[in-house]
Amino acid sequence: MSVRVAGVGPVADLLRARVVSDATACVVVAPLVVEPVAVARITDEQIDRLWEQPMRTVISELQRAKADGCRRIVVVVPTTGMSGGADHAAVAAASEAMRVLVKSAARQWGHDGITVNAVALEPERFGIEVSVSGPVSIAPRALDTEVDPVATVSFLCSEGAAHVTGQTFVCDGGLWM
Amino acid sequence: MSGRGSSLDGRVAIVTGAGQGVGEGIARRLAQHGAIVIVAARRAETGEPVAAAIRDEGGRAVCIETDVTKGVSIAACVARTVADHGRLDIVVHNAFTGAVPHRLEDAILDKHWKGMSLTAGWASLQCAREAHPHLAAASRRPRGEGAGRYVLITSPSGVEGSANIPLYSPAKAAQRAIAKSLAREWGPDGITVNCIAPVAASPSLLTAFDRNPALQRAIEARTPLGRVGDITDDIGSVALFLAGDDSSYVTGQTIVCDGGSFLGL
Q1: How confident is the model at residue B3, as a pLDDT?
Q2: Is the pLDDT assigned to residue A31 strictly greater than 50?
Q3: Contact B161 A102 (CB under 8 A)
Q4: B79 to chain A nearest CA, in Å?
Q5: Which end of chain B, N or C, is less packed with Cβ atoms under 10 Å?
Q6: Does some domain include residue B221?
Q7: Number of Cβ atoms within 10 Å of the Cβ of B48
Q8: From the list B71, B160, B174, which residue is nearest A97 (CB)?
Q9: DSSP assignment of chain B
Q10: Segments of chain B with pLDDT less than 70
Q11: Interfacial B residues in 207-246 facing A (CB < 8 Å)
Q12: Domain of B70?
């Protein structure tokens, strides 16, 4: 079975190279534009690039995945949507909106046997510097091993994940809890 | 109301979407506690009667026609407020439009998404941008004489998703993330930023109840407190807390005000 990975950048490249599935699946890597800017100085053009266009792209990608007959859909986002981020309000808004869009899609498409889930990764994977956005957690990461999201994404793309939907798997070594 | 921070005497608050529903309830409650309330409504036909009713009750309120889908209209509202009253302490962004039932796969971005994106995503950022210098100035006043407060009205649906209006949920989720981000960004300025996720007897919900009485019974049955919230007594009171001094150490949070229906946070 094929896995289509939508998106650009190192996360998309990694997943495109290594995610496998026994189901028809689609992985959408959040097409975020990371550009630190204080809300007090944000321009309308930046709101369009950082919030509006990424959201339109992801909505369209989910629609395409459904039209393509995908039974497993996974959206990959940074944890910044859950934690918020200083100077990254528009990016955080898009990230969290995508994560909750997953829940809506899961509710609507569950009757069609389609599962929709999210995987949340450390902000640095998307180029978001914690030194700017602020810490994700008050505690250090629980695991000190390198985080590889491929197995988690592959599981959610598999037939074996048939009863998992609308969820967010945080795959960051136990940083955000 | 007995908390030390429940008095908003002399403070100036803008409430968007205050021409009806939750916004009206919040405007009324803030005015009852001394705030000078700007009823920011898209149409004067709805905003003026609310402002007049507040004045009739002894409060201070004016209507400023404001279309939050246009950044220039938001900027004009803030500028006129500060010009007329000399300060701005509180912004409650409640205005929202576009929650039309749809199938996600059939959604047309410019029909189903645009209005929600403009009123939730864009306007939350634009209101923040325009208000920031004035909210920061409010927080520099001596304790008890002012404090910058930004409150966003989101929804439980913005946490748990929606089967009927699937694009409504992400629009509302965005506001929670904006609140958390601004809480981080504006904390050093002494400004707090929080969300309220209400379920309230707004005109749109009451209309839905009239059309579908089973909906009302279903909502009340799943709600531990057994009723739908009142726009002023239930939702307005939470907004009053977040707008006042009693909430000075609360920021970046979402207060779900729905009678206990959603317990997932």
Answers
A1: 46
A2: yes
A3: yes
A4: 15
A5: C
A6: no
A7: 17
A8: B174
A9: --STT---TT-EEEEETTTSHHHHHHHHHHHHTT-EEEEEES-HHHHHHHHHHHHHTT-EEEEEE--TTSHHHHHHHHHHHHHHHS---EEEE----------GGG--IIIIIHHHIIIIIIHHHHHHHHHHHHHHHHHTSPTTS---EEEEE--THHHH--SSSTTHHHHHHHHHHHHHHHHHHHGGGT-EEEEEEE-B--HHHHHHHHH-HHHHHHHHHH-TT-SPBPIIIIIIHHHHHHHSGGGTT--S-EEEESTT-----
A10: 1-6, 265
A11: none
A12: 12-200+234-257
Residues of B annotated as part of the active site? 168
> Does the residue B111 lie in any domain?
yes
Residue of B185, B193, B251, B265 to mutate, interface with A, max A Cβ within 10 Å: B185
B4 occurs within a structural domain: no
A51 and B117 within 8 Å at the Cβ level: the answer is yes
pLDDT tens for residues A147-157?
999 999 999 99
Give the pLDDT mean for A15-25: 96
Q: If you average pLDDT over residues A129-150, what whole number do you get?
A: 92
Count Cα atoms within 13 angstroms, Cβ side, for B225.
14
Neighbouring C-beta atoms of residue A157, cutoff 10 Å: 29
CATH number of the domain encompassing residue B110: 3.40.50.720
Question: How many whole angstroms separate alpha carbon A62 and alpha carbon A7?
Answer: 12
- Residue ranges per domain, chain A? 3-170
The first and second tokens of residue B2, run together, are 């007995």
Q: In chain A, what residues touch B170 (CB-CB under 8 Å)?
A: 55, 96-98, 100-101, 104
Tokens at A106, concatenated: 């899961």
Q: A48: nearest CA in chain B?
A: B122
Domain count, chain B: 1
CA gyration radius, chain B: 17
Residue B1 lies in a domain: no
Domain A3-170 has CATH 3.40.50.720: yes
Give residue A17's pLDDT band: very low, low, confident or very high (50, 70, 90): very high
Contact A81 B184 (CB under 8 A): no
Q: From CA A160, how far away is CA A21, in angstroms rounded?
A: 10
Q: What tokens appear for A50 in the block?
A: 């950082």
For an interface test with B, give the residue of A57, A104, A128, A176 to mutate (most B CBs within 10 A).
A104
ipTM of the complex in this document? 0.97
How do residues B50-83 score in pLDDT, each as one tens digit?
Answer: 999 999 999 999 999 999 999 999 999 999 999 9
| Interatomic CA distance for residues B48 and B90, integer angstroms | 20
